[in-house]
Design a protein that fits this description.
The protein has about 240 residues and is of the alpha/beta class. It contains 8 helices and 10 strands. The radius of gyration is 18 Å and the shape is globular. The mean pLDDT is about 95.
Length: about 240
């Protein structure tokens, strides 16, 4: 089996670029600067209409921040999983922790039961859990398909030692997918150092606005951006460089 690339796609158009570049799968997200939140119904439907040959996974995350959720947030997650299932996507991506930093097993099971038969990936909530190797076994027992992880480090290169140990301990029972900071310039190093076969990356380029009239003095949000007239989008040429 060759290298499998999953693209963190921030829009339906990024899904198109991911497919054109040869990716196997996308994780469709909104609010990338916050680490990704659940995309809208319209974005999911549009992505499905525009691509035909790759899988779509949907992140189920009601907000940025930690992974300790209120009952209202849990209800939103349950509705969003039901929506994703009704739309027929390939899989969903979520992770839930207790206030002590352990995996919230009962909530994970509740969400996974609703998600069946969709594929389930545990996202980088894993990277801020207290005992990763305990959580690894718990996720295997729950029937989770894969773990997206930077090895509890700021990026996957720094996390190579832990990722390698996770791959070794998983022994094929669950997929360990390095993500965060995976680039075309370092993916071979991460692959060789960990033994992983699936990789998560964004492969984005800057997209410039076609607006002719511009008022640069009015930001639309609180996040630091270089310009309201620049966005980022997956670039099929960059995706192809990973394959």
């Amino acid at each position: 089996m060759g290298r499998i690339i999953e693209i963190c796609a921030n829009s339906a158009q990024s899904c198109v670029e991911a497919e054109a570049g040869g990716a196997k799968r996308v994780e469709l997200c909104a609010a990338i600067p916050e680490g990704g939140t659940t995309p809208s119904y319209g974005e999911i439907r549009t992505a499905q209409a525009l691509i035909s040959s790759i899988d779509i996974n949907i992140i189920i995350r009601p907000r940025g921040g930690d992974f300790l959720y209120t009952q209202a947030e849990v209800q939103s997650m349950l509705y969003d999983i039901a929506m994703a299932k009704d739309l027929g996507v390939h899989g969903v991506v979520f992770g839930c922790l207790t206030k002590e930093g352990d995996l919230d097993i009962s909530l994970m099971k509740r969400l996974m039961d609703v998600a069946k038969p969709l594929s389930v990936t545990c996202h980088r909530a894993f990277d801020v859990c207290r005992e990763p190797f305990v959580v690894l076994e718990q996720l295997i027992d729950l029937g989770c398909d894969r773990i997206l992880t930077s090895g509890q480090q700021p990026d996957a290169v720094q996390g190579i030692p832990m990722i390698a140990e996770l791959v070794d301990r998983a022994a094929g029972r669950i997929i360990i997918m390095p993500g965060c900071g995976v680039r075309e310039t370092n993916i071979a190093r991460i692959e060789a150092g960990t033994g992983a076969t699936e990789f998560h990356t964004s492969a984005r380029s800057v997209v410039y606005s076609h607006m002719e009239y511009r008022n640069e003095n009015v930001p639309m949000g609180s996040c630091a951006v270089s310009s309201e007239f620049e966005t980022v989008q997956t670039d099929h040429k960059k995706v192809a460089a990973y394959i």
